[in-house]
Amino acid sequence: MSTHTQSPSGTDQSVAELLAELGIEAENSGAFDGSWIDTKGELLTAVNPSTGEPIASVRQASAADYDRVASASQEAFAVWRTWTAPSRGEVVRQLAEELRKYKEPLGRLVSLECGKVLSEGLGEVQEMIDMADLAVGMSRQLFGLTMHSERPQHRMYEQWHPLGPIGIITAFNFPVAVWAWNATVAAVAGDSMIWKPSEITPLTAIATTRIAQRVLERNDAPPIFNLIIGDRIEVGESMTKDRRLPLISATGSVAMGRRVGEVVASRLGRSLLELGGNNGLLVMDDADLDLALAGVLFGAVGTAGQRCTTTRRLFLHKNIAEEFKARLVKAYGSVRIGDALDPNTLMGPLVTAKAVDVMMDAIEAAKAQGGKVLYGGKRIDRPGNFVEPTLIEVPEQLPITCDETFAPILYILEFDDLDEVIALHNSVPQGLSSAIFTLNMRHAERFLAATGSDCGIANVNIGTSGAEIGGAFGGEKDTGGGREAGSDAWKLYMRRQTNTLNWGTELPLAQGVEFNL
Ligand code: UN1
Question: pLDDT tier at 11 (50, 70, 90 boundaries)?
Fold first, then answer.
């Protein structure tokens, strides 16, 4: 615990002080149902990926602990759904205020635990705040439609009711923002929830739960923000199989999502899946190359290539390919790699030693399949899980370029025909995010048309990552089809009821059916 973190304001704060400020102890409970449960499972230790040093531990929850949390969440739901939606919004407004107060320490803990650089750690808490602000507005806008009835003196309309306790499974790379995408919307929708964070990032989840619970207590609100940290099979499967949870929202790998989707579908539950991406970025020969370079750099190197929206495939028009590659190699050489909490760092470590091995295996596979490394390709010999950001030129789409490797590897392909490259771009299993850099509106519109990018997100002159929360976030095909955050994603967290009301003295039947004695 001797590590010191340098804050941007120049003051030193020890890790111990940071943890104390956020209520993290040396050993923490792994389950919360309104109070912290005395969990007895195996000890899980969170490790700083920048140094390899342990941060703090969690006693994991068992299936029995899960059951207790689920019952409590059901009880909390029964109360919370009777609060009006604007009064639920008021609680979420206060959550936004509390998160503003804790932006700095929580952002630091994000960087400490998952290794994303400080500006991104703070940005992640900002994303929570933005989500909460958005959800406050939503709490007065959970609109249903009214329809004209075909029957006289009848009125037809729909309304949206709270859905139930829901399950939220999140990944290590956005350890708190993705909870907020779900939790803030679910809260105004009238749902309670059980959060199962990644085993790699349990501490940020505990800190967030503490912050959220304080807000609930201040408002005498039921404990709707519950937490369970435990084994993927014992706890994860208990949750996905649980008929008490009408919705499971899961973020993570395609393999995980497929399993969650199957289990939830077999009990006819609803799942919201946000899974892998294999995001492509096209640079036309009419593009602003300075913009394109900045977009590629943040998309491919930002978060050390560990976003589901990371740019993984770069398609360069033949006329600008040589120049752009040269500029890219030069830019890669200037990326400052180091401790995630050092404000100078642009690229932090990978999350685990295993992630480094997976990256090295992918680089070997790419080489064996005909790829040529233009930059990087190696581990960096220092404590922590550091690697070089890597550029690999490939002659064509290869088996490895159809896979998502959660690391900073960018595959580069060249093209000269827009229709052909769009087809190539779309010929991977995943469909999350995509981008084109062009100053020609015909090229831009071609990319956004129904015959263009097949992804859930398609951008022009903006990279593939870093989406704002106001839009619906998610993708097609193996990405799972779910949509979270803004737009009308709230509908997934509610149940729709269609109401037909007869204020007349007759009982006419629809479709002109007669049924008289
Ligand atoms: C993820 O990597 O799971 O668009 C989410 C982005 C972020 C969210 C990424 N706002 O890159």
Answer: very low
Active site (annotated) includes residue 402: no
What is the spatial distance between Cα 108 and Cα 110, in angstroms, rounded to a whole number? 5
Q: Which two tokens stand for residue 227?
A: 């937490």
Number of domains in the chain: 2
Cβ 133 vs Cβ 126: under 8 Å? no
> Is any atom of ligand 1 closer than 6 Å to the C-beta of 308?
yes
User: Distance, CA 124 to ligand 1 centroid (Å)?
Assistant: 10
Span 498-513, pLDDT tens digits: 999 999 999 999 999 9
Question: Model pTM?
Answer: 0.96
In this structure, the answer to whether residues 317 and 224 fall within a common structural domain is no
Task: Find out whether the beta carbon of 111 lies less than 6 Å from any atom of ligand 1.
Answer: no
Could you tell me the two tokens for 421?
């490259």
Does residue 510 lie within any of the structural domains?
Answer: no
CATH of residue 364: 3.40.309.10
- The 8 Å CB, 24+ separation contacts for 284-288 are 284/317, 284/418, 284/436, 284/437, 284/438, 284/440, 284/443, 285/317, 285/318, 285/319, 285/320, 286/438, 286/439, 286/440, 286/443, 287/317, 287/320, 287/437, 287/438, 287/439, 287/461, 288/437, 288/439, 288/461
Domain containing 377 equals 279-469
Residue 464 and residue 488 share a domain: no
What is the phi/psi pair of residue 68, to 5°? -65, -45
Q: Mark whether 366 and 269 lie in a shared domain.
A: no
Domain shared by 327 and 400, yes or no: yes
Regarding whether 486 and 438 lie in a shared domain, the answer is: no
What is the arithmetic mean of pLDDT over 462-475?
A: 97
Measured in angstroms, how far is the CA atom of residue 243 from the centroid of ligand 1? 29
**What pLDDT was estimated at residue 12?**
55
Q: What is the DSSP string of 136-155?
A: HHHTT-----EE--SSTTEE
**Is residue 267 domain-shared with residue 140, that is, in the same domain?**
yes
Angstrom distance (rounded) from CA 102 to CA 109: 11
Q: How far is the CA of 462 from the centre of ligand 1 (A)?
A: 14
Q: Residue 13 has what pLDDT? A: 72
Q: In which band, very low, low, confident or very high, does the pLDDT at 432 lie, cut at 50, 70 and 90?
A: very high
Q: 């760092």: which residue's tokens?
A: 345
Instruction: Mark whether 284 and 381 lie in a shared domain.
Output: yes
Whether residue 349 sits in one domain with residue 329:
yes
Catalytic residue among 127, 199, 274, 388: 274
